[in-house]
Amino acid sequence: MLKLYSFGPAANSLKPLLTLYEKGLPFEKNRLDPAKFEHHTDWFKAINPRGQVPALVDGDHVITESTVICEYLEDEYPTEVKLRPETSWGKAQMRVWTKWVDEYFCWCVSTIGWHRYVGNMVKSLSDAEFEEKVKAIPVVEQQVKWRRAREGFPQDLLDEEMRKIGYSVERLDAHLRQHEWLVPGQYTLADICNFAIANGMQLGFPEFVSAEKTPGLVRWIEQIKARPAVKQMYAEVELEQLGPRD
C-alpha cells in the first residue's frame, strides 16, 4: 500500500493528500508533528534524507517534492478521476500554474507564514536547545530559515514578500473571474496545488483576499472546499493549529 508522510492538510502537504483523496486511492497516513520536529528525526531522514515532507513511499521507491508526487500518482495510478488534461496543450497550461505556485506564490506566502507562526515553535527554547534542533536539519537553507524565523525576518524582506502576495492574488483572481478552473474546462493538479497555498487567505490576508476584492478567487476557493474529497480529507486528517507571533 502507498504510504504518505506529511504534515496536516495545508501548504505542500495538502497537494498529495488531496490528490490521493480525489483519486480515491487507499494509502497509509503518517502525519508528522512539526512542533515535535519529527521530520528532522533519524527515522524519517532514513526515508527522506532531506528531512522534508511530504514523502510518498511506493514499494521500494520514495518520491519527494509535493508537485512531483502528484504527477507520479497520476502517472502510476490512473483512475476514473483525471487530474491532468489529455492534450499536450492542456498539460502545458496545467504545468505553467504548478510551476508558478512552486517557484513564486508558495515562497512569498511561506515566508510570511514562517514569520507569523513557525517561529513560535522555537521561541521557548534556550540557545543551546535551539542549536541542537538546527543541527538535525540536513538542508542548510532550512537551517537559515529556522534561525530567521526565531530572530525575526528583516522588515524590507517582509514588505517585498507582501507585495508579491498582492500580485499573486491579483493574478489568480483575474484569471478565475474568466474561468471556472485554472486550466479552462477541467479541475486539475493546477487547482489542487494552488488551492494548497490560497486556501485560508481570506483570514490570513484579508487586506488582499475577500469576496469584494477578489470574487473570482474566493468563488474558486469555496468551490474546491465544497468538493466531497476535500471535505473527507479535512474530516480525516488533522490540521495543525499554530498560534500567531506575539
Automatic annotation (TrEMBL):
Every GST C-terminal domain range: 87-245
PROSITE patterns documented for this protein: GST_CTER, GST_NTER
Domain of life of the native organism: Bacteria
Residue ranges the record marks as coiled coil: none
Domain GST N-terminal positions: 1-81
Signal peptide residues on this chain, from the entry's feature table: none
Family to which this protein belongs: Belongs to the GST superfamily.
Designated name of the protein: Protein ligF
Species this protein is from: Novosphingobium fuchskuhlense
